[in-house]
């Protein structure tokens, strides 16, 4: 997949013979049309977590509340939040954070893959 994304001007993601998304590779990566595309494009794949929405607050795993500033968004009561691994950073405990239990740590040379 990486080779196709670096070589192509446009790409199509198929699932069971049905086109899921067509577009410029970077647009497909940054704005996937559905959860299949989100989890298929990228290595490691995007983390997908179900969440509940109440007004301007996102509730993840029934324990973590994240507030967002744009309260004018009309969101459904339940959503799937997608986060790319490269957008997750370790922060001091006083900053905004998300608690997760580490399930596996895999050292891959210059990178370390942490699964939670």
Description:
The chain is α+β, with helices and mostly antiparallel strands and 116 residues long. It has a domain at 1-43. Helices cover 16% and strands 37% of the residues. The protein has three helices and eight strands. Strands 5-4-3-6 form a four-stranded antiparallel sheet. A two-stranded antiparallel ribbon has the order 1-2. A two-stranded antiparallel sheet has the order 7-8. Strand 3 and strand 4 form a beta hairpin. The longest helix has 6 residues, at 2-7. The two termini are 24 Å apart. The mean pLDDT is 83.
State the main characteristics.
alpha+beta; two-stranded antiparallel sheet; globular
Secondary-structure blueprint:
Blueprint: H1 2-7, E1 11-15, E2 18-23, H2 25-30, H3 35-40, E3 47-54, E4 57-60, E5 64-67, E6 78-83, E7 104-108, E8 111-115
Antiparallel strand pairs: 1-2, 3-4, 3-6, 4-5, 7-8
